[in-house]
Amino acid sequence: MRPGRGSAPCHHGELLQGFFRDSVGAARPGLVTLPSPVAGVRAEFRPSGTGTEVTVRPPGRGKAARAARLALDAVVGPATGGGLLTLHGAVPPGLGLGSSTADVVAAVRAVADAADVRIAPPTLARLAVAAEAASDPLMFEDARPRLFAQRDGDVLEVLPGGLPPLLVVGCLLDGGRPVDTPACRPPEPRPAVVATYEELRTALRAALAAGDAAGVARVATRSAQLHRTDGEVDRLLAAVDGPGVLGVQIAHSGNVAGVLLAPGDGPDAERVTAALRAAGIVPTGWFTSGGARHPRPVGALGGAW
To answer: Where is the GHMP kinase N-terminal domain positioned along the sequence (predicted)?
Structure first.
């Protein structure tokens, strides 16, 4: 093996989250992430000549070290080899940006590069779930939206079309308090609840097929209201209500959120940013997701994203 490198993007929370029927009718946790062009993680893996331990820098990124070990087991052999894994990228953890999955995916790709092999995205998804219990679909390299079973590493549906351009004004709910993803699988909800999520799935499928940004935003807003019932979504909606706002989206596990507007920057994004500050909600910047991407960081955390 030789030194290897890998990278992975992050995301900006979800457009849809809940429980969805798979091909045999079982209800499974699933989500559709909102891509972000602003942040990501790079990894370097240097194999060692002796031992099987994977050391990670900076320390404390145990999921990435575990993923590197699983990747070594897959491409070299069980309990064979070790090395130093170095991660680069200032992605705030615990906010719902997919920082741990980005660490994991970048680590696996760096190990694969060191072994001069390619690990296909479906296999990488299973390795990611094994390393961190729940994963985001950051290992898929094309831009097609996916309904992803984050606890299993399975794609429940590749949705039609692509994400229409949306201007996303990012912010932090609940003061930006970090949130740990629960290790345990959530219990299956009542059939009526699953039926509601399936209606949103159908609506998102139709909006994506039609390139309907407003339709996507409506689904994201309703999904956010169903997922988070502590009043933070209603507070956000009240703060930014006005011309140009299509809806909001939030993270599945974390306090990052976004106000969704029609493409283009300028007065609407500036007005929303000012409204967030006036309501005591921290803005983090804005970017365009879907179509042409022109990230424009502003606010307290703009330099990190």
So the answer is: 77-133
